[in-house]
Amino acid sequence: MKVLAIESTCDETAAAVVENCGEGVKILNSVVASSVLMHQKYGGIVPEVAAREQIKSIIPVITESVGEDKDSIQGVAVSFGPGLMGSLLVGVESAKALSWAWKKPLYSVNHMAAHVFANWIVEDKNTEVPMFPAVGLVVSGGHTDLVLMKNTKEWEWVGGTRDDAVGEAFDKAARLLGLPYPGGPEISKAVERVTVQMKERFGSKFKLPRPLFNEDSLDMSFSGLKAAISKIVTTLGSVDEKTRDVLAWEFSEAVIEILIKKTMLAVERYKPKSVLMAGGVAANKQLRENLKMAVEGVGEVKFFCPELRYCGDNAAMVGAAAIIAPREVKPVNLKPDPSVTTV
Ligand code: AMP
Ligand code: MG
């Protein structure tokens, strides 16, 4: 089946054409337009600006993705939430209109589940896909969830953050350190600048807490880390570039240690065949490498993480979700749901 997929939950406007390939999904094209730079001067997403940019971009993005291939498309998929209401409306209404005009089935996709289904994107028929049961670690700007997946549709929420999402924590910590929005990639760049000598010299001076680390639960908490950074910055008065980078490194270490500890606790509890990471924060190099090492250290468990370009918001993952776990819906019944949960 060949599907046109649409994504417009936040500040990315995206469309992709995908089709099934072996047990996975092959991407025929994936187009993404982003308004992220427009939000930089405000230090975060401005919903009205994001929605206005969605309206400007949606038709050019869909047109580029579909190209001359309209007649071979067999269905239309769209993220219906979670996200910003104004942004969601643009994608959902466009998908409904196309489904109706082309007389093709419409598939509703939960955006957070779509992040997880990015792990089914394959190069060819021989690419390995995840096996069930699986544990999913969903890490984004708005969510931090541990999910037990029995199959493509039966998912159970088993843990996650009690307060800030991990991406939000990266963004807020970066802001406190004077780094631009979005903070996650900026903190990663700062981490790369920290030398062994800097770690030895300053590392222990700025030890941050690891909240809930030793608790026998899959709960996580990141807001205390942000508060700890704020306290250090206030106490110091001003932060030079080296101190800023060392603080960013220690913050990143703390967050990654918590995520790995809780994911491995879920692995111990649920004995999955695969662990799947997904969401914007899954682009973090240290997290990818360290979690892969931890998971593959446990016997036969396989680790999956999407290619970098499919970690952030994109429509290819929405198409993958519609093919692997289709949920057909009548256009008249599909409404955006800004606060739908991952499970
Ligand atoms: P999403 O909500 O899935 O669109 O992902 C956006 C979030 O991912 C933002 O909070 C970013 O700061 C975060 N992010 C992106 N790249 C990285 C990275 N390399 N390390 C940590 N967080 C990141
Ligand atoms: Mg997202």
Automatic annotation (TrEMBL):
GO MF entry, a single one: iron ion binding
CC cofactor note: Binds 1 Fe(2+) ion per subunit.
Domain Gcp-like: 26-319
Top-level EC class as recorded in UniProt: transferase
Function: Required for the formation of a threonylcarbamoyl group on adenosine at position 37 (t(6)A37) in tRNAs that read codons beginning with adenine. Is involved in the transfer of the threonylcarbamoyl moiety of threonylcarbamoyl-AMP (TC-AMP) to the N6 group of A37, together with TsaE and TsaB. TsaD likely plays a direct catalytic role in this reaction.
Family affiliation: Belongs to the KAE1 / TsaD family.
Name recorded for this polypeptide: tRNA N6-adenosine threonylcarbamoyltransferase
Organism: Candidatus Collierbacteria bacterium GW2011_GWA2_42_17
